[in-house]
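Narrative of activities, Objective 1.

The group set out to show that a structural description can be obtained from nothing but a protein's sequence at a throughput compatible with the screening campaign. Below is one input-output pair from the validation batch, recorded exactly as produced.
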Amino acid sequence: MKIKYIPLLILTLTASVGLCQQIEKFVAKTPDYNTIVEKYRTGRNIKMLYTEATPLTTEQLAEFKGLKYFEPDVHFRIDAKLIKDKKLEVVLMKTSTDREPAYVRYGIVKFAMGTEEYKLAVFQNKKMLDQSQDTNMLFIPFRDLTNGSETYGGGRYIDCEIPPSGDMIFVDFNYAYNPYCAYNHKFSCVIPPEENRLPVRIEAGEKVFENEEAVSH
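Output recorded for this entry:
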């Protein structure tokens, strides 16, 4: 009776080995998290150097050696809960100048870091929404306890995408970037609202620009 089960056992083992080999090949071809983040950062350096929209002056470009970042840390890629406001309101955001661009307050993201829970308000650019209601981008301007030392004093930004379903969203601080004011004071940049001031150190994302010309807010 036992002999009858041998072909089935061999078939099962063969299938398992084949599946393991497929998984190994998939893992080998899938870039690790750090590689993905570094590729994004390289792309930002290229844009700074070679696009017409660069915020850098001619003098800054001549000395530019790349933006500075904290080392990628997967612990700052955080699962958050997206809670949409029941009534979406248009707010005028304060900036580094007297400009007040209109944004739609979409809601908040709630997340935990360590044993503490935090929340950040998320927004959508009204001008972009007027052009296309299909946009799924969310804008999160924030401040934290590294501002004014390791990071730009005026705060930093994160962009996220509204999930196609459900209410879970990734808030990845490794992709936090500086506003253009961090490089050139001639630009007008959104100042993070008071409700988006985090009482912790976010040691992730872009650091302060070495040749910073802007005045911190």
